[in-house]
Amino acid sequence: MKYCIHNTRLIIGIADRVIENGSILFDQDKILKVSAHSITDADVFIDGTTFSVLPGLIDVHVHLGMDCSVDPFDTMENTEDAFTSFIAYKQGLQFLRAGITTVRNLGTKNNVDIIYKKAVESGLVIGPRVYAAGQPLIMTGGHGQPMGTEVDGKDEVIKATRQRIKEGADLIKIMATGGVLTKGNHPGAVHFNVDELKCICQEAAKASLTTAAHAIGLNGVKNAIKAGVNTIEHGYYLDKETVDTMRDLGIYLTPTLLAPTLLQKNSEHIPQHMIDKIEEIEKEHRKSFRLALERGVKIIAGTDAGTPFNNPGQLVEELKIMLEEGMTTAQAIESATYLGAKCLKVDSLIGSLEEQKLADLIVVKGNPLEDISNLKNIQHVFKGGVRLYPDQIH
């Protein structure tokens, strides 16, 4: 079956490329034609007047199976894997309803995310495209213990990385510093030494996998960069030298600005140890984001969904904060589409409205370039040319 959405605004997803009053033709697989003119060869026509069509959104930092409670690590530690998988399934539908057709999952206990991904790919359940890290690698006593694999020294990190590859991970997640959610764990503290981090990155690269480093403190960020990671997650503390190195090496930054914002907004419900940490480090977070933006670092959009009060599908709220801190609307949309796909090394398949790419696209009412909130006005969600919302997800 061929669909044509016509008389519509096509926001391509790359830089500020837009076709006003254009048409897009796709089948139940790929995009067949993107045009500024009318298209007549279709089975189903959708009048896109007053609508905008965009690539399906990509949230590059989520935690499927974390339940967004006030202490999701505690919940995860005391929850059976089967129950965690049901949480992941529900969250996948929430992502799709919000127009998020692809997620990069950066940590779930016992590789539940890898199993969930296989269920989606097999057609057993409906869900977004999932690029799964499985259990993160952490040092003994490090951040994320309820879902991590504790390893120390070169031999252990090499073996654990190889094991994750064997289990089907799409990338390797590393906890390079402490974190906010782990009790008794200072978020700026360095975890793993450079040699350990290098071993992880080298093993991942042998298998053509990328690496994502949770890194909050500046020294931890620097160690991760020296080791050769592909993305820095959070990056609360950055300086000019560091962001310039990231820019020159093509290392992506996922700032996850929404996560600490939600902690602060709900501080009366959050455990005190988390609030104490956030109050200490958050004042530097947006400053670091602005510096990275000004110096030309490639910034991608991730929410850290699964953390307290951070329900799946709030990517637009992340983009709004990016706009507050200096991004243009076109840059924000690109960070949640094309650049996300580039980071995943799947930009030949998804991330922009281009012919022969997979037909992952969303239709929204209004013009998101004028008001980013219009990305919430979801009318249709297609994944691989199959209309999931509103047809199959309610």
UniProtKB/TrEMBL annotation:
CDD domains reported for this sequence: Met_dep_hydrolase_A
Annotated ranges, domain Amidohydrolase-related: 53-386
Single Gene Ontology MF annotation: hydrolase activity, acting on carbon-nitrogen (but not peptide) bonds
Annotated protein name in UniProt: Aryldialkylphosphatase
Species annotation: Halalkalibacterium halodurans (strain ATCC BAA-125 / DSM 18197 / FERM 7344 / JCM 9153 / C-125) (Bacillus halodurans)
